[in-house]
Amino acid sequence: MSRYRGPRLRIVRRLGELPGLTTKTSNKLHPPGQHGASSKQKLSQYSIRLREKQKLRYNYGVTERQLLNYVKKSRKGKGSSGKILLTLLEMRLDNIAYRLGLAPTVVAARQLISHGHILVNGKSVNIPSYQCQPKDTLSVKNSKASKGLVERNIEALGNTIIPDHLSFNKDQLEGKVNNIIDRKSVALIINELLVVEYYSRKV
């Protein structure tokens, strides 16, 4: 399944707040669809797990295959599979660029990276899924177009709250990964264990 390119507010209304997908908010409080406003149907356990999985997919902008691979990798690690899964997703280059405030959404951050505007440790990296490590430094390509684009993003976003595992020098447009993200710093409201349970029959 490819990445979602449809109406983003429709997804937000269905799944709840997804900061990595869009900065917009909907005036409608009920879910999308003809019966969204009146639906009081109780969700099954499968539906609850599916919703949590969809939250991860849409917020981090990954495909179904990518998310399944992340789940497989997290189950091989030592410790909580859910926590490892969130760490893998949060330490992606596109998500780090988004959390530093270089772009308004993960989708926009992916485009920045794909177009070669972002450097990692002084080298151009155009792979959004690149796994950042502690002590990695992110900077903006030394060109008028790249810096102008990022500066406009920063100005439009205002005061971005930088999580504890990252630091950002606004004057030099340079960010640093200080350490692996802590669970408390994850912006998305998610029950990651339900996602692991959803994929338990597939891995």
Automatic annotation (TrEMBL):
Coiled coil: none annotated. GO terms for molecular function: rRNA binding; structural constituent of ribosome. It is found in: Plastid, Chloroplast. Keywords: Chloroplast, Plastid, Ribonucleoprotein, Ribosomal protein, RNA-binding, rRNA-binding. Residues 20-43 are annotated as: Disordered. GO terms for cellular component: chloroplast; small ribosomal subunit. This is Small ribosomal subunit protein uS4c. It holds the Pfam family S4. The lineage of its organism: Eukaryota, Discoba, Euglenozoa, Euglenida, Spirocuta. The keyword Transmembrane helix does not apply. The gene is rps4. With S5 and S12 plays an important role in translational accuracy.
